[in-house]
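Can't paste images in this forum, so I'm doing it all in text. The chain is below; anyone willing to post the predicted structure tokens underneath?
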Amino acid sequence: MPALLSVRHLSISFHERTVVKDISLDIPKSGITVLVGRSGSGKTTFLRALNRLNEELSPCEVRGQVLLHCPLTHAYQPLHGSEPALAGKPIQEKEPAHVNKAEHAKESIQADTATQNPVDIYQLPPSSLPALRRTVGMVFQNPNVLPVSIKRNITLPLALVAHCPQGELEQRLEQALRTCALWAEVQDRLHAPASSLSGGQQQRLCLARALALQPRLLLLDEPTASLDVFATQQVEELLRALGQHVPMVVVSHSLAQARALADRIFFFSEGSLFPVEKDDYASNAELAALFRETEQQTICSPQPAL
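Text version of the structure:
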């Protein structure tokens, strides 16, 4: 499958300590890639490298390339009369009357990502970083809702970042909330503070906000780590549905979650990356055993350079 993002010989250091070591892999244009490993193994640092967030948090040294095989999302993409479908919606909601279901089922959230000239994101000027982070969106471990209403958590970024026309804000709001199975729960209290939502609802609102900006790739850093069991199940079901339309890279500590979500799994250990074949994780116990052996360097070696 063609790559959306190609990582080549990526190493990341903080204060002369190398955290990510010579990693190369391709992120395809569809499906969910899950990164697992112990705390401090380098997986979150690697994730943040995919849209250059590390440099916002601490001085770091980056070597290698991260090649983006699609144009940066600079301009607002107008609606075309129907909304993207989510096959197997985790929470059933009534479709809006205006949606043409035949077209609805065919459309993808993503536009065509083909480009003949991949961009090394580490060669982009600082002025292009907002467009990069809109193209490669991110949802964090703890829900980071804005201190405004539920509605403005969606419409404010749409207006300020995406320059969405005023006449489309309401439709974009409903689309984003429906996509994340939140519309039925909040449509009667859109002007309530976003902080009044439960933890699971807040995380789905953050996901809706990210998707409203039309990313080509979505990064998620342990998106259920702060949620209870029920909210975790809701978010996992939502991610499985969204993964059919939006490519994702997900960091997770949960082996069960990795097996449930992943089209492909990579294991981080001491800053190195190890691919995991699907046949190697028929059960959580087998996957855990594989990881223990991998850490001991007895069955795998770091992924060779592509």
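The first strand starts at residue 3 and ends at 14. DSSP finds eleven helices and ten strands in the chain.
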